[in-house]
Design brief:
CATH superfamily of one domain: YVTN repeat-like/Quinoprotein amine dehydrogenase
Number of helices: 29
CATH architecture of one domain: 7 Propeller
Radius of gyration: 37 Å
Amino acid sequence: MEEGEWFEFTQSWDTATQDMVWPVLALAARKDSELVYAGDSSGRLTTYTLEAPGEPLARHTSVQCAQSAIRHVAALEAAGVFVQSDDAIQVLYDSGRQRQKWATTPNDAFVGACLRAQGHEAFVCTSTGSGTLLDLQAGRVVQRKGVDASVSALAFSDMLFLGTATGELAMRDPRASFSLSYTVTASTGAVSSIALHDNHVFVACQEMSTVSVYDKRNMSQPAGSIACDGRPVQLHAGKSDLWISYTEGFVDTRTFASQCSDVGMGYAEPALSEYAFVAAFAVAPSEQALLIADTEGVVHVWSDHEQPQLSVTGRQPELLAGRYALQDVDSSWYSQVSLDDENVSLASVEMPLVDSPLLSRMDADLLDDVGRPACFVDSGVLSSLKMLDNVGYAPKPHSMRRNQLPFCTPGWRKAWRSGQHDDNELTRGRSKFLSQQRRSAHGRASASAVPSAAATEGSVPKHLRQMRIEYSRFGVEDFDFSLYNSTQWSGLEGNVRNSYANALLQVLFFCPEFRQLALSHCAGSCAEATCLSCQLGLLFRLLQSAQGQSCHATLLLHVLAQRPEATALAVLEDTHGHATAAYAVLVQRLMRLVLEQANVDCRRMVLDSNQEPSAEASIVERTFGFPQLATTTCPSCNAAHFRESHVFSLDLDLPQSATGGAGSTSGGVGSGLAAVLAGGSASVRRAESMARLGRSQKLGFLDFVNRAVVRDDTQRAWCTSCKKFQLLNSEKRMASAPEAYLTLNFPLPPSEAVSGAAGLELGASSPSLDGSSGSNASSKSAANPWQMALPTEFNLQVAETQVQALSIEDSSELAEGKVARFKLVAVISSIRDTRRGPEHLVAHIRDPDDAQSWLLFNDFLVQRVRVDSVTAFYDWWRMPSVAVYANSDRTSSLQDIIQTVAQRFPYKISTRILTAPRSSLDPLQTTALQQRQQRVRKGMASRRGLYSARTRNEAVPLFKAEAELLERGKFACALDAEFVVLEDAQMEVFSDGTRHVLRPAVHALARLSAVRANGGEMHGVPFIDDYVEISRPVYDLATVYSGIHAGDLTVGVSRHALSTMKEVYKKLRLLVDCKCVFIGHGLKHDFRVCNIFVPQALQRDTMLLFQSPSHIRPISLRFLYWYFKRKSIQMREHSSVEDAQATLSVYECYSKMDEQSLASVLDDIYSVGSKIAAFDAFNKREEA
């Protein structure tokens, strides 16, 4: 290394909690010892010492000294440190013990502080315009002075300089009680930093690319300015150089000898992520090292020495624990500790071994339990408080009960409204982010996770509460879903719009007959782009092969949103994720839509292949539901009309306790009207009879089933025989028992069915804030009308005279005839975390591998549960929505039909989609595009001697021999995908620069390219190059990163041949099913957005292959290709074909290395990469 070259000596990441990043906002180094101070946004002050190059900073001490963010840190001469936070000014010893402290009032905050260049004085400013001069050595306030309330920067030597948010620079004289000496306007923006050197004052302002220079002897006008290569944000005046930190993330210097016109040797540019920026920087007193901290909590140390020295003396700090360590334990151990030494903590004295109780022990009979302390009174109550004889009186708010004040934990309002909870029990105490887990394993183990303050205490089990994905800066890929699922079955993520359907999709997946039909349909030649059955089959195939990995149904839900039937049935959420009805009602409508659409698609699939009606055409109707016979009779002429139809589900009647029938004073008509509004099919007369029966006896679950299989109704309609309107009697009766599955729909109370999704309060009484249900049964009954347990089995007999359902114990009462036994296999339930909170759906499904075991599917959480927790509905927070019973004695004819469908339409995607690719959008392509395609084909033929009339874009389809190689599982390809942004990320940005991701950006596949990697003449030639047609609005094309321009994804406008998303996905699905080996860079992100699971054994990810164990950050494909080939890619914009070919070249270089050569190459790659990162910006300035 040449002398004077600055490089990154080390970087370190240290945080108080594993599940949260605390940015370091203040840095300082001591002048008399090798010690670094770092203050973060959590109020923690930590000291570090330098170790060997590349080793993390060694923690010396750490103390939580403030309750708010630390903004400024400065080292004092007498083994102390000056700390300024938002609410306090402190002087601490190096051990962390407090020496002095000054606090602000609750309505005030410290906005700036600085030490005087000589002496032990500090000047601090508050947000209310108060300035205070402190004597740090004596610990007293010297003087107070009113200053500007918008102070943003300070500097203090013989004169005090204050910069404001309006761009003014004020000079005050401490010899004249800080009176105002001069004021100038430095800029229109806020002053961000001030540095002093001799008689010069250097000022940096926001949104300016220059540093203004003033002479304090003549402040009337600037003495000059320093042109910078960026926007300066922080300044530091050293011995011979002015150090400047820029918002772009680099630091350089200007020499004082050249009047700051020449660039110095000091330079640093740490490699920051996309969302990180420099939060603090400091120069070591020896000026041999530079300390930089970013908003992700990483501290970078840059130096131009192989062994830099921070302090002027080079003295190592004393170890506080080692200084008082006991060498020989004897009876005089106490003489080794001086009680007058303020630097020693009494905790360093070891506990002696005793065999009798200590004098400090307190027996239980000496303690009195005084109970919990009272919680804080609401500010609204205190504002209306009136004092009379030292007693406060205030009117009782309507939201409070009389003489009751509930005790609440911190953050209860947020937990009460949103239902947030702490799930440390579910995650077993581990961090939810993979990056945090890697950092903990890479560096020093962080402190244990702090329990969330927003956790609520209630009766809802944590595994049934709504699962929320937490996002780090790496997006959803960083979330560790494996903490919530240890089974072989995969869950579905709930961060997508209309994801309430996850529970229903899981239930349908575990129906083997329906799953086989969907798989057979999706593998066929269906050309409809928005086919719901195709998307169901592709999703089921994904769940089959995912091996317990978390999946998402994004593609299916996007197709569902485009179906006009979904809009007509009102099963979609709005743009804000809100539903017009309760999810328990929406999932019943959605099941009807899915089954009806699958019935149409299956019938079309069978008839298109056979051209004759057959039993296979009605396979969906025979799998779900039953035939229903409707009889209408006229009492006047006794004319009867019969009509047979098929019903996919059976709607139960609402219990009368929910509609006012039982124990109601409103009468039977009111209860009947409520039953009609609740969605049931009972008439007012039927509701009245049920109300009378409900008052006389308590109905069981099978009573509701019996009343649903045979329904009587009376309605006024036209009689064709009498030729006039008559009061006709109608009866709907189950004609035969379901052959496979019986689906039961549970209605909700009228108010809950209409507005249940809005989170209205259930029950007549006001609930407690923690969501508890109370002790009396009446309140629970009001919240949940289905106070019963579902039977796991029951018998059903359908005869000509009667249809009857009885329990297994009462089967002797069944008449002679064929009896079908139904077994409970799935239940979809509505769960509320709190009474006021929104609802969500969970599914309980019987384990297909173990008939006695049940599985819970709560979005991405999957775990085994007991059967009693599935069938019981006695809690206010759980109500049934859909129950599925399976016929234990399924007819042999149905099984034969299923096998016939599987044989005639097996799940096997044809390789013809790769050998002769076509798209349903081809007839819509423009003539200009067809001419361009011909020119591309002829150009490829002239370059390679190849010609294919089926060439699409830049891809040459597979030949027959290559397709056979693919089917044998001996095919490899290099893959790359380009994406566009459909929705921007939703973030919260705080004043200290930290960001909290509420929801990451939503990406969609825009282009997929795959090149051959099997050697031979066609090696490296693409065989897939598809542009995906997107009809949804696109937020950002990201042309620089995707290479997609405006109009490229629009039919009739695009310059490329477009394909539908289903067509592109089926090609990728075919490659995975054939066990093709994928070579790529960052395959995890590509496969996740494409919504496909690829086993690790089939992935060759160059980002992971060239990942050093001692470094956290991955290496870009562009740098890897340049390192091995000395060629550049992605010069202007990305191309998926170019990136796939570059990845293939990089992987070929990797395959030629052994373990030893790979280790040396990795070291050289990171060494070269750090140099390029450090000098790339400098070289660009030199070239300019």
